[in-house]
# Entry
Amino acid sequence: MNIESKFNEFTKEMKNFKLPHWNDLPDIDLYMDQVISLMEKYLTYVAGSDSKTLTPSMINNYVKLNIIPAPNKKKYSREHIAYLLIICSLKQIMPISRIKEMIDIKLQNSTISEILDYYSDLYNRTFDEVINTTNKFIKEQKTTDNIYNNAAIFSAIISSRCSHLSEEILKIELPPEENNNKKHKEKKK
# Structure
């Protein structure tokens, strides 16, 4: 199979991958090993094949740091899974503390179920837009030499620029006293 076919097959698979919405989540509480299995299923294409999306120690740390609520009698609800879906799908490109800040800002006016539905819609739509942008880039290339390597570089640059943009927007979104507190803490270190 040539590179173009592999790329087209991959993008087709990725277009079929969708993050679940609130109503797609199990409505029964789960033990940690069940949560891990479920998250691996939900996030198959998010972390890549080389890395673990979620481990028990990660979940325990998220609880300890108050990033997600504590489980109820060692069981995790839809609420926990919603948090974990958002965290795990963003943690490769954004610090966990920033992800929590984004969720907290949204929680001021929305429930976690509404946030997950909004996030999943946006996540699913965004991938289609990124694929379309990358395909447009490929078609505009003057040469076919290293075209997919160039597309990988292009995609990495998009990721980098979007990550920077996201950081700057969050600085604007945070109330001034929170921004000042963060700067003060950073100076102490």
Q: What stands out?
A: The chain has one domain: 3-188.
